[in-house]
Automatic annotation (TrEMBL):
It comes from Lingula anatina (Brachiopod). GO terms for molecular function: glutamate:sodium symporter activity; L-glutamate transmembrane transporter activity; neutral L-amino acid transmembrane transporter activity. It is found in: Membrane. Belongs to the dicarboxylate/amino acid:cation symporter (DAACS) (TC 2.A.23) family. One of its GO terms (cellular component) is plasma membrane. The lineage of its organism: Eukaryota, Metazoa, Spiralia, Lophotrochozoa, Brachiopoda. The chain crosses the membrane at residues 21-41, 61-84, 96-118, 188-208, 220-242, 262-284. This is Amino acid transporter. Keywords: Membrane, Symport, Transmembrane, Transmembrane helix, Transport. It comes from the Eukaryota. Its main location: membrane.
Length: 285
């Protein structure tokens, strides 16, 4: 039985396959165009203002994705869990919560090990310091993850997440002997950046309870169904803009890099870290 995507599209010709995968094809064209444009314009030594206008279309693409990601996650999770039976949605919610916690813990551990061993980005000129973080700082990372699972304010979770900041306070122990005592202090603060973990947990519980509300909760469920349909329509438009955005991002990035060979080496190490981490996570975890 044929399994290739082209045969599924149109057994008699490749036209159906090309039509079905046209978004992927134009995205690949955008990548090639961005690399060609960036490498071709490097000898011109363009000004920062010109590079900004080349890259602004990619910046707009990233802004579109960030704009739509939170409504997309909330609508999909609420409608997905809300469509299940009460017992099934409860089990699914608990299983999903446990899965998120366990995979996040394992993911953080894998990320730390790969960052210390492969050290991507160390060839860019900035000296990165590895091995200086104590075990308590790694413990703070896990504690922050648990705090972010249950945000104090859902609206704030769309903009900020919890993080532990470590600072060293130096004080004089004895003025007569001029002895300084350095004592690290930890402060739990809010940092800029979406708290996706908290939003996912809230959406799962919300969808679970919407179903449990019965007939009273149906208008709420139907509202999120409509939101999800509209969001996917918007997402289709953004995907069609993706080739231009990708080409713009790649071209501007190549033009801003001083040493292209070092940048590609660091990028290769980063890609290696991501690929190894994902393979380990998929095959082992």
């Amino acid at each position: 039985m044929p399994t290739s995507s082209c045969k599924k599209c149109d057994p008699k010709s490749t036209k159906g396959c090309l039509i079905k995968n046209r978004l992927l094809i134009v995205s690949m064209i955008g990548i090639c165009l961005g690399i060609t444009l960036g490498l071709g314009l490097r000898p011109a030594s363009l000004s920062e203002s010109t590079i900004m206008w080349i890259g602004i279309w990619g910046e707009l693409f990233l802004r579109m994705l960030k704009m739509i990601i939170i409504p997309l996650i909330i609508a999909c999770l609420v409608t997905g869990v809300g469509a299940l039976e009460d017992k099934a949605s409860g089990r699914l919610g608990i299983a999903t919560l446990v899965y998120i916690i366990v995979t996040q813990i394992i993911g953080v551990m894998i990320g730390i090990m790969l960052a210390v061993s492969i050290r991507p980005g160390t060839n860019l000129g900035d000296e990165a310091q590895f091995g200086t973080a104590s075990s308590t700082e790694y413990g703070d990372t896990f504690a922050d993850m648990l705090r972010n699972l249950f945000p104090e304010n859902v609206v704030q979770a769309c903009l900020q997440h919890v993080g532990t900041e470590v600072s060293s306070n130096t004080s004089k122990k004895n003025a007569g002997f001029a002895t300084n005592l350095t004592k690290p202090s930890k402060l739990v603060i809010y940092k800029d950046g979406t708290n996706l973990l908290g939003i996912v947990v809230f959406s799962l519980v919300f969808g679970w309870r919407v179903h449990a509300a019965g007939e009273v909760g149906k208008p709420v469920y139907n509202f999120f169904v409509g939101v999800s349909v509209v969001i996917f329509k918007m997402l289709t438009l953004i995907f069609w803009y993706a080739p231009l955005g990708i080409a713009s991002l790649i071209a501007a990035s190549i033009l801003r890099v001083e040493d292209i060979s070092t940048a590609f080496l660091s990028l290769g190490l980063l890609v290696l870290s991501v690929v190894v981490g994902n393979l380990f996570h998929m095959l082992v975890v």
